[in-house]
Amino acid sequence: MSLDLVGKPQFDLLSTTGKTLAKVNKETFTKCKMEGTCLVDGNLLNLSTSNNKFEVVNTKKYPYGIGAAGAPLMPFSSIAVNNLELGTTVFIKELDGYKLPNDNKHNGCVRVDDKGWSLNEEPIDYDGEVELAHFVLLRSVGRGAFGKVRVVQHRNTKSMYALKYINKLKCIKMRAVENIISERRLLEAIDFPFIVNLRYAFQDDENLFMVLDLMLGGDLRFHLERYGKLKEEWVQFYVAEIALSLDYLHSKNIVHRDLKPDNVLLDENGHAHITDFNIAVRYSEKKLPSAVAGSMAYMAPEVLKKKGYTSSVDWWSLGVLAYELVFGKRPFKGKTNDTLSYSIQNDPLEFPDDAHTLVSEECIDCIKALMNRDPTQRLGCGQDGMYRLTAHPWFQDVSWNELARKAVQAPFIPDAKKPNFDATHELEELL
């Protein structure tokens, strides 16, 4: 499909600090919902032509932003795609006092089709290697140690995903390159309904990108902070679904090592999924992991002993997670890492005074069984570990076959009308 020009040639290049970023005929301006905004190829760009300034304007109905050499445009609001109307014309116009070169490259316009997309002179190649241009970049929903996470839509299939940015320089500075490579290789080898699975992976000069299953229900940490503590019915459901994931991972000799509320995401239907495999490892009986890895409050005693451990550590972490979700606090405390480590290894497991009024005896017994300091006796561990867990009285009403098919309705459905994540992630896009 050819570009439908109106009156003037197309704007040729968008650049910042002399580096070409995109051609307008590849990906053009998209309408945003906030005055003084502009979005190009899903990114906030510094628009410049030599040292000149220009203004981006269009029809009176849809104002755009002002860009200058070396200065970013005002940022866009949360969701800024598919909102151009049929026939909307977008112009590039010079500001008063700043003249653009008269070479017919720096003024122009584009039109959009009936779906709100710009009419591309050069269609995107979906048969070649996956790249960022294959995705529409939407709202930011999180930020990790190496970059942000945002919602994206595949332009061809229209499927929605989460795009995880991993800045290469940050990886090098934090000496995390091996972990990132290991995480990608591990994710390529697994695929399970209750795991946040990897769907695509690619890179550019600055970032590595992981395209993952989209989970819009928020993480359990978010909901725990919102409600203070969660209903036993909810926690039983999450623990059961997480147990299915752990059983799958352990069958492949993979230990997650960082199971906690922050790393369990809910989908829009309320089902629980394990995420963040940054420190997950494969192990064998001949070569057990021994590094102290993970978040200390959720570490099993055998991790802290540094004498080698197996997948048993994940079942302990599941017990800590269950305890925290139902009681709103963790079972062991310490003002320093040393005192916390000592408490985990030596202090008796105690429950709140009102525990029996908050949850059932079966729930308390299950948590105790998951947090048995002897890994050979711990619930979930050993060859019959999953069988013993499914047979525990706390799960007597769970239909495990139905649960595995996601045929059981979740007891809590996240509110789709509210952001189930920290809104400051979106706010950062506006600053």
From TrEMBL:
<keyword id="KW-0723">Serine/threonine-protein kinase</keyword>
<keyword id="KW-0418">Kinase</keyword>
<comment type="similarity">
    <text>Belongs to the protein kinase superfamily.</text>
</comment>
<protein>
    <recommendedName>
        <fullName>Protein kinase domain-containing protein</fullName>
    </recommendedName>
</protein>
<dbReference type="GO" id="GO:0007186">
    <property type="term" value="P:G protein-coupled receptor signaling pathway"/>
</dbReference>
<dbReference type="GO" id="GO:0009966">
    <property type="term" value="P:regulation of signal transduction"/>
</dbReference>
<dbReference type="InterPro" id="IPR017441">
    <property type="entry name" value="Protein_kinase_ATP_BS"/>
</dbReference>
<dbReference type="GO" id="GO:0001664">
    <property type="term" value="F:G protein-coupled receptor binding"/>
</dbReference>
<keyword id="KW-0547">Nucleotide-binding</keyword>
<dbReference type="InterPro" id="IPR000719">
    <property type="entry name" value="Prot_kinase_dom"/>
</dbReference>
<keyword id="KW-0067">ATP-binding</keyword>
<feature type="binding site">
    <location>
        <position position="164"/>
    </location>
    <ligand>
        <name>ATP</name>
    </ligand>
</feature>
<dbReference type="InterPro" id="IPR008271">
    <property type="entry name" value="Ser/Thr_kinase_AS"/>
</dbReference>
<feature type="domain" description="Protein kinase">
    <location>
        <begin position="135"/>
        <end position="395"/>
    </location>
</feature>
<dbReference type="InterPro" id="IPR000961">
    <property type="entry name" value="AGC-kinase_C"/>
</dbReference>
<dbReference type="Pfam" id="PF00069">
    <property type="entry name" value="Pkinase"/>
</dbReference>
<dbReference type="GO" id="GO:0005524">
    <property type="term" value="F:ATP binding"/>
</dbReference>
<keyword id="KW-0808">Transferase</keyword>
<dbReference type="InterPro" id="IPR011009">
    <property type="entry name" value="Kinase-like_dom_sf"/>
</dbReference>
<feature type="domain" description="AGC-kinase C-terminal">
    <location>
        <begin position="396"/>
        <end position="431"/>
    </location>
</feature>
<dbReference type="GO" id="GO:0004703">
    <property type="term" value="F:G protein-coupled receptor kinase activity"/>
</dbReference>
